[in-house]
Write a structure and sequence with these properties.
Oligomer: heterodimer
Structural class of chain A: alpha/beta
Order of helices and strands of chain A: HEHEHEHEHEHEHEHEHEHEEEHEHEH
Largest interface: A-B, 105 and 120 residues
Strand content of chain A: 15-25%
Number of strands of chain A: 14
Number of strands of chain B: 13
Largest sheet of chain B: 5 strands, mixed
Number of domains of chain A: 3
Largest sheet of chain A: 4 strands, parallel
Order of helices and strands of chain B: HEHHEHEEEEHEHHEHEEHEHHHEEHHHH
Radius of gyration of chain B: 32 Å
CATH class of the largest domain in chain A: Alpha Beta
Strand order of the largest sheet of chain B: 4-3-2-5-6
Structural class of chain B: alpha/beta
Strand content of chain B: 5-15%
Radius of gyration of chain A: 23 Å
Number of helices of chain A: 13
Number of helices of chain B: 16
Chain lengths: ~425, ~550
């Protein structure tokens, strides 16, 4: 009898384990041809924000088992400021959530709904096993998620991004029983406030630190509230994304009342983000006799052997969810390029981190994700980036090695 | 009231047994969701650690890579590879390094020869090693300047015999092309500079791999450029599109760990060039290569700290079994609730539990009433026994409550009303700790301590017994909690970078360790109870 029971149990276990066989994996993926892969780059070729977000979740989460599926899903409207704020604060562990978008008419498209189903969230155990974080999602759509997918949804509804940052700050603090003392600060009323801060947002999606908005020339009350919640030895450690033209020196000075202020900035949005990729701030934060917690903010990458997420500053709704590539996989900072060229700041940075030829056991390689289709970043630019990332020399004329946009033929089934 | 003790023991064993079984089940699962919609609706085939080059054949793939990997250093010849010209294709693509210290000798001829030769050809192409093909008793290929080079004769015995033409030679073979590819991935002859040497303990290299199936070896050859551009090793999946246990093991050994942040190097990557490889296999490889923190090395893989703490938990279970079986067969005079208590305490006190148990009963005893025995013990030993009595029921109950809360999710309270210095009381971890203590005290008081004291102090009123049982339970478990809560907070919220979940070894192990520390803190405090005769220490 015992033998039979053991055999049955073993059989059940074997069946439940699954295997790696199955149908041929080539599949017929509609965007596979556009997803061009060079030696050191792979393109994730979205042609609109919704599609881009889905491609990103499919890249990062194969969802063949609980451990490579998501913890939760962030669902937001196609609003740059709302999406930027949510990605800053929700994505990182323990939530482990990629971002998906509502359609332009503020409903959940069939494609997004199917992707939400495929992702099978595990639920965030620190937060009532929440499966979906719906930020400014209409109640009717929330009901659809609950009814169709049976997911547990936490809703945040705050149309003002500044107040939303404060709300998410309270929620995060409750979940972790702590306020991170490092706070990224971006300008909400500067036309390129998000572009200057996109790299810093990538760090937060990667490491889960704080975020707040300011105006170019003043500090809103909700941001003051966020900063007052910090209990570090020096209050908060603030990282302003952009130079004085983006966030004024007056604001920087006023912020000094709540802690130490630093700037992560360059002459333009490209330089701000290369500065961010190389930036590291560490040192004193909080200590009590026996233990101490240092502050630690920024990628600090100035050598070969890293991954980058590369996109176009005009496509922020493509780039914001792409920060999930800095949260899982090869991780790495966000850099910006122009559709048809690699700007000097970005090229200079990539030349600095260029790898060199090594042996089979000490290999050092770079890698990058290209965000958007060829209208966002051309094939020529992708090839230029590839050359910069490679351990091979960069010729003076980088167009010389690019013949035509390569496309693999369709798979013969 | 005798039924209450086994009920508590059953709850503990059932819940923790369920948790540990669930943990083992999830660790053993491969790709359980791959055929239930994981691939549905995918727009492209790439995943974060695996790039899939879907193609229409070797010529298509070769043409594509000629354009996407345009580097002179990694260029292959212009002609497309085929089953007929594959040797010529390779020889025309190879850039021989005159200083190479090795020669690669592989089988030549048909498709079967290519399957066996390809893994070695990848290294030869990377290294610039001269290559000789053996076919029908003859060698062809790069025959010039073979002096002072060590030959590596690679392939199955059926296709290539041992050859004695070389000054120094080494034979490398395996049962299948798949196994040969894995062998070459790990093999390294430092003197002859041959082999990738990518073993599990090479923690620093950014290793790339090209994956195909033996039947699609030609596609692997078409992707030869990766051997130079990405220093990629060739590996084989199975013909059915799955991956073997050996490849699975190897891929997991390639998972890199991080110490400060996951953005630190290295990372590893697979390039799948065969359309036959299944999505389940791709998902498995993508998962295997996902970086993880040093402590646990992530799901499935076993981190150093995880291994150490797993041993702690296993010793605990073994200690509990030893005490339970020993008490059952050798100590008929010890009452069942006490035996249960020692067994449960030993579960959380690996080694120490059995030592204290043996020390408590290998000493003189007197029968104070019929069937009621007392052992003569020092105050210190009485304190240990008294601690174990409360701890044996209380600590496992606290873990059970913690597990249930993690399983169903912590409640969370936040908002303007929760602001201020006590905002953290709305967080799940403090709530879990409070719930663990309060619920465990109530259960242990009602189902264990009250009936135990009622049985031992028949002259006392129910109210007095109830009050006394509650106070001693609350105080005793408060003492345990002092160590247990601080240690679990330290482990789960501070020491381990990613807070483990209920299906993680480190969650259980942290609770085990926290309980152990809790016992050590409670032990001297129980000495006061013994001294003041609030607890019995000689039963």
């Amino acid at each position: 009898m015992t033998k039979y029971i053991c055999n049955i149990l073993l059989g059940i276990l074997m069946i439940s384990c699954g295997n790696t066989e199955g149908g041929a994996g080539g599949g017929s993926h509609p965007l596979q041809q556009e997803a061009t892969a060079t030696a050191y780059t792979v393109r994730i070729p979205g042609s609109n924000p919704e599609e881009q977000a889905i491609l990103l979740t499919q890249t990062v989460y194969p969802a063949t088992r609980e451990d490579n599926a998501v913890g939760a899903i962030i669902l937001v409207p196609q609003d740059e400021h709302i999406a930027f704020t949510a990605m800053h604060r929700i994505t990182h562990m323990p939530v482990n959530a990629p971002m998906l978008f509502l359609s332009e008419d503020n409903t959940i498209s069939e494609q997004t709904l199917r992707e939400m189903k495929r992702l099978k969230p595990d639920g965030v155990f620190q937060d009532e096993r929440t499966d979906v974080y719906a930020v400014n999602v209409p109640a009717k759509e929330v009901e659809r998620i609950e009814e169709i997918l049976g997911y547990r949804v936490r809703t945040f509804f705050e149309e003002d991004p500044i107040k939303l940052a404060s709300l998410l700050d309270m929620w995060q603090a409750a979940m972790k029983a702590d306020h991170p003392d490092e706070v990224v600060i971006s300008a909400i009323d500067h036309p390129q406030g998000i572009e200057h801060g996109i790299g810093a947002m990538g760090w937060n999606a990667h490491m889960g630190k704080g975020f707040a908005w300011v105006y170019r020339d003043s500090i809103p009350q909700a941001t003051i509230d966020i900063l007052k919640r910090r209990y570090g030895d020096f209050g908060a450690f603030m990282y302003l994304t952009g130079g004085p033209d983006v966030i004024s020196d007056k604001v920087a000075k006023e912020l000094g009342r709540y802690g130490l202020v630093r700037r992560i900035s360059g002459k333009n949005v490209f330089a701000s983000n290369t500065t961010n990729a190389g930036y590291k701030d560490f040192g004193r934060n909080w200590g009590w006799w026996w233990d101490w917690i240092p502050r630690s903010w920024g990628w600090g990458i100035a050598q070969a052997g890293h991954n980058y997420i590369i996109g176009n500053p005009d496509d922020m709704l493509y780039m914001i969810p792409a920060a999930v590539l800095g949260h899982m996989g090869k991780h790495g900072p966000i850099l910006l390029v122009k559709p048809d060229s690699v700007p000097k700041a970005t090229a200079d940075y990539l030349k600095m981190v260029k790898p060199f030829k090594t042996g089979p056991q000490e290999t050092i390689l770079n890698f990058a994700w290209i965000i958007g289709d060829t209208t966002s970043i051309s094939m020529a630019t992708q090839q230029s980036i590839d050359r910069l990332l490679s351990p091979f020399d960069v010729p003076v004329d980088t167009t010389a090695y690019l013949p035509n946009a390569p496309i693999l033929q369709e798979k013969k089934d | 009231m005798k039924w209450t003790y086994p009920i508590v023991a059953f709850i503990v064993v059932f819940v923790l047994g369920f948790g540990l079984t669930n943990l083992i089940k999830e660790e053993l699962e491969v790709s359980p969701w791959s055929e239930s919609g994981a691939e549905e609706g995918r727009l492209m085939a790439h995943t974060k650690n695996v790039t899939r080059l879907v193609n229409a054949g070797a010529a298509d793939l070769h043409a594509y890579l000629k354009q996407t990997i345009p580097y002179e250093e990694a260029k292959t010849t212009d002609m497309a590879p085929s089953e007929k010209n594959w040797q010529e294709f390779f020889l025309q693509s190879l850039k021989v390094d005159p200083d190479a210290k090795n020669i690669v000798v592989v089988p030549g001829g048909g498709k079967d020869a290519l399957k066996w030769a390809l893994p070695a050809l990848y290294y030869a192409y990377f290294n610039g090693s001269p290559v000789l093909f053996y076919q029908n008793g003859e060698l062809s290929g790069n025959k010039g300047n073979l002096q002072n080079k060590k030959a590596f004769i690679i392939g199955s015995d059926d296709l290539i015999p041992n050859l004695d033409e070389f000054e120094e030679a080494e034979r490398i073979t395996a049962k299948s092309p798949q196994q040969l590819a894995l062998k070459l991935a790990e093999y390294r002859d430092e003197e002859a500079e041959f082999g990738w040497g990518r073993k599990g303990d090479r923690d620093n290299g950014y290793f790339h791999y090209v994956l195909t199936t033996p039947d699609d070896a030609l596609l692997g050859l078409a992707a030869l450029s990766y051997a130079r551009s990405n220093n990629a090793t060739l590996l084989y999946a199975e013909e059915d599109g799955g991956i073997s246990g050996e490849l699975d093991r190897y891929a997991f050994a390639q998972r890199s760990d991080w110490f400060v942040t996951p953005s630190e190097g290295p990372f590893r990557h697979f390039w799948i060039v065969s359309n036959r490889v299944s999505y389940a296999a791709q998902g498995r490889l993508d998962f295997a290569l996902e970086k993880a923190e040093y402590a646990s090395m992530g799901p499935v893989a076993l981190g150093d700290m995880e291994a150490l703490m797993l041993i702690f938990v296993i010793w605990g279970v073994a200690s509990a079994l030893f005490v339970w079986i020993h008490a059952l067969y050798t100590l008929p005079m010890v009452k069942m609730p006490i035996k249960i208590s020692w067994a449960l305490a030993s579960m959380l006190l690996p080694i120490l539990g059995p030592v204290l148990y043996i020390n408590s009963y290998r000493r003189p005893a007197t029968e104070v009433e019929k069937g009621d025995w007392r052992w003569i013990r020092s105050y210190n030993q009485q304190s240990a026994a008294a601690t174990a009595m409360g701890f044996g029921y209380g600590a496992p109950l606290m873990i059970v409550i913690g597990f249930i809360m993690v399983w169903f999710g912590f409640p969370l309270f936040f908002g303007p009303g929760w602001e201020g210095p006590f905002f953290w009381l709305g967080a799940g971890m403090p709530i879990m700790m409070i719930a663990m203590y309060v619920l465990a005290v109530l259960i242990a008081w009602a189902l264990v301590q009250y009936p135990m004291k009622k049985n031992m102090m028949p002259g006392m009123s129910n109210k007095q017994i109830s009050k006394m049982a509650f106070i001693t339970t609350a105080l005793s478990m408060l003492a345990v909690s002092l160590g247990m809560m601080t240690t679990s907070w330290y482990m789960l919220m501070d020491k381990i970078p990613m807070m483990p979940k209920e299906d993680d070894v480190l969650w259980f192990a942290s609770m085990w360790l926290a309980s152990f520390i809790g016992f050590l803190i409670a032990w001297p405090i129980n000495w006061l109870f013994i001294k003041n005769k609030l607890k019995p220490g000689n039963v």
